[in-house]
Fold this sequence. Notes:
Radius of gyration: 17 Å
Shape: flat
Helix content: over 70%
Amino acid sequence: MLEAAKEAAAYERELNAEQESEQLQALRDSGMEVIDDADLSAFSSAASSVYEKYGSKFGDYLPRIQEALK
Length: 70
């Protein structure tokens, strides 16, 4: 069962990546400007007050997001 769960997770990630690519292309085709190389440092700085205000409501999820942005 564990092996099947791992296979399903890998398949889901692949499918999600394909769908994301298709959706982003559809947005571009409709005229939206999509920024692929966002300035994550600026985003983190701009969102810091939100982190302070609501961070405790999300347990360890917020620190994981912040770590991923580094």
